[in-house]
Every structure is written in structure tokens, then in C-alpha cells.
Amino acid sequence: MLPVDGLVLAGGQSRRMGTPKAALRLDDEHTLLEHARATLRQVCAGQVWISRPFGYQPQDALELPDLTPFPGPIGGVYNGLAHCRYDLLAVLAVDLPRVPPTLFTRLYREWHAEPTLDVVYPVARGGNTQPLAALWHHRALPKLEDALALNTGPRVRDVVMTLSSRVVPIDPEELANINTPEEWAAFRRAVQP
After folding, report:
1. Torsion of CA 183, 161, 113, 121, to 10 degrees
2. Cα(77)–Cα(115) distance, integer angstroms
3. The domain spanning residue 88 has which CATH number?
4. Each residue of 155-191: pLDDT tens digit?
């Protein structure tokens, strides 16, 4: 287990999907939300929270609703870091079901080799980066707060560019992102036995 807390980002609006992505069923028993939380629980020694949309009424203490309406993923990461007991927060967006738990071990090794980094995240061949399957350090909080204060719904990649960061190469399949019904159908076909 890694000395990190975890956060599942599940507060998005799922506009392109047309239905909440977190509630999509991988099988008869598991939703994308449950899958993401289980992935993080395999590697996090600390708590694993769920980032929820503004106005959501938490069912338990491990659900963290956004502090303002529509802050985007940066709002969720900020809120998770503010609750973090460890210096590092493992973040996983609910719509990245192929990210393996071992990715976080690789990211941690990279951060441990250079502990001044604010964020460590994967990059796939072709340059596809994914800072929403990453390790974020507590010292990133002031820059996230600055970005949120602009009230512009800061883009994650723009914020990451202001931080000390490093990328770790990963198989492109592991970063498959599910945003549309077509991507969901393709993913389901690929994982069916």
C-alpha cells in the first residue's frame, strides 16, 4: 500500500454520455464508480473519497461534494487535497476504467525519485496525457485555489502547466476514456468474455 489518500472524480455532468457515467454498470454487480474506488483501494493506505457534484447530499463521510457549482475536475482535486492526510492524493476519474492499480505504484516511484514534483501523471504513445489518473501533491493547493478563484472553470491541462510535473509512459489502452454512448458500447464489447 502506498502512503497516499485517494479520490474518485465522479462529479462531472456527463453531458456527452446523456446519463451519469458513475452509475454505468460494468457487470451485474459493479458500476464505474465502484470499479474506480476499488482500483484506488488496492493501492491507497489512506482514505478513498468520492468527488460529487455541488448540491449532492453525501450518503457518508467519504463523499466530498464540490464547494461551488461546476468547478470542473480542478475543484474536485482541490477539495480532495484539502482533506488529504497524506502529502499525496491519488486521483482517478470515474470514466477511466482501464487504468490499472499498478499505474499508481509507478507514479509513486517517479515522485519518490523526485519528491519536489507537484503532480505525476501518465502519457500514452501519441502524446495523450491524463492528469486525472495521477498523483497530486498537497503543495499544489495554492495554484489550484488561484485557478478556481478566476471562476472560469479552469482546464486541467492549463493548471498542470503551472505546476512542477512529470509524465510516465503508459499503454494507450490503459488511458481509454469513456465519454459517449458509442465509446461505452465499444468498451463493453471489448471487455465481454
Report:
1. -10
2. 19
3. 3.90.550.10
4. 999 999 999 999 999 999 999 899 999 999 998 888 8
Residue 139 CB partners (closer than 8 Å, separation 6+): 87, 118
Sheet holding 48-52, edge to edge: 63-65, 48-52, 5-9, 88-93, 133-137, 119-124, 165-170
Residue 88's SS3 state is strand
d(Cα 45, Cα 2) in Å, to the nearest integer? 6
Structural domains of the chain, count: 1
Residue range(s) defining the domain that contains residue 106:
5-191
∠ CA 81-32-50, rounded to 5°: 25
